[in-house]
Amino acid sequence: MKKILGIVSSARRLGNCEIMVKEVFRNLSEPCALNLLRLTDFRIDPCRGCYSCLFKDGNCVIHDDYATVLEAIAAADAVILAAPAYFLGAHSALKRFLDRGLSFYGSMDRLWGKPAVGVAVAGIPGMEGSTLLGVESFLKLILADIRQTQVVYGALPGEVFLNDGNREIAKSLAHCLFGPKVPKTSPCCPLCGGDTFRFIGPDKIRCMLCSNSGTIRMDNGAAVVEMEMAEHQLFLTRQDVMDHKDWLIGMKDRFMVLRKTLKPITIDYRKDGQWIKPHSKTDRQTILSNL
Ligand SMILES: Cc1cc2nc3c(=O)[nH]c(=O)nc-3n(C[C@H](O)[C@H](O)[C@H](O)COP(=O)(O)O)c2cc1C
Description:
With 291 residues, the protein is of the alpha/beta class. It has 2 domains: 2-182, 3-Layer(aba) Sandwich (Rossmann fold), CATH 3.40.50.360; 184-291, no CATH class. It contains 9 helices and 10 strands. Strands 1, 2, 3, 4, 5 and 6 form a 6-stranded mixed beta sheet that branches. Strand 8 (204-207) and strand 9 (213-219) form a beta hairpin. The protein binds flavin mononucleotide (FMN). Flavin mononucleotide is lined by residues 10, 12, 15-17, 84-88, 121-124, 127-129, 154-155, 157. Residues 10, 12, 15-17, 84-88, 121-124, 127-129, 154-155, 157 line the site of flavin mononucleotide (FMN).
C-alpha cells in the first residue's frame, strides 16, 4: 500500500488546509495510508548559511526537528501539501523548512520525482499573492514531480467546502497524483508549468518557478509564452540538481581564491551602526514576571 504524506502548513486544527489535504486523500483511486505532518508543530530554526551540509552528506549542524520532517518526506511515496495565504504569501513554515534545503541534495535518491500535489488556500478571492508560487516552489525544491496545484478560497475553518467546486478541485488533484497530468489551460511556462512571471524587459519575462527566461506575445488573442533554458535552473532534470550541487560545492574553491580580495570590501563596514540585540532568556523571564 502506498504511503501518502499530507503536509499541513497551518497551525489551525481542522482548518481549511487540513480538511483539503484529507479530502484529496479521500478521493485517491487506490487504497493508501495517510501520515500527516503539521509543519507548524515542528521546530525548524533558521538556516545559518554555513554550507556544511553540502560537505557532510546532507547532515545539518543545527539540531532541531528539521531531520524528522525531511525523513517523513523521503519515506513517503507521494505528497499532498496545503498552505494558507498569510499576508500575500505562503505561511512562513514552508519557507523556514525550504531555507534548510541545501541538505536536500544528501537525500536526492529518496526525494527525486515523488508525485505531489499542492493547494494554496486564501481567505479572500484574488488575495492569495504569491502563495501558489510558495507552494509550487516548496514541491519543486523538495525535488517532487508536481502533478497539479490549485488555489482555493475560504476564510473560516471549513468554509472552503461551502463551495462544492472546491470538492471537485480536491477530486482532480487526487486523480492527478497517480494518474495523468491535466495540462494547465491558462498560459504557463512551457518548461516547468509555473505561471508566475516577472517582466525583465518590454516583452521579456522570467519564470519565478524554474528561473528560466523567455518572451510573451499575443497570437490570435491568446498569450504565447516561449522560454529558453538557462545555465542554472531549478530543476528540470535530475542532472540539473547534481550540476547545481557541484556548482555550489565549487563555491568553496572560488571563495578561497577571492578571499583576500573580498575581505577588505567587507571589513570596511565592520564598525557602522549599533546592533539591537534580542533580550536574553533571563531578561525575558524578568520582563514576564513583572507583568
Ligand atoms: C495572519 C493571517 C494572514 C492572512 N493573510 C491573508 C492574505 O494575505 N490573503 C488572503 O486571501 N487570506 C489571508 N488570510 C486568511 C487565510 O489564508 C485563510 O483563513 C485560510 O483559510 C487559512 O487556512 P487554515 O484554515 O488552514 O488555517 C490570513 C489569515 C491570517 C491568520
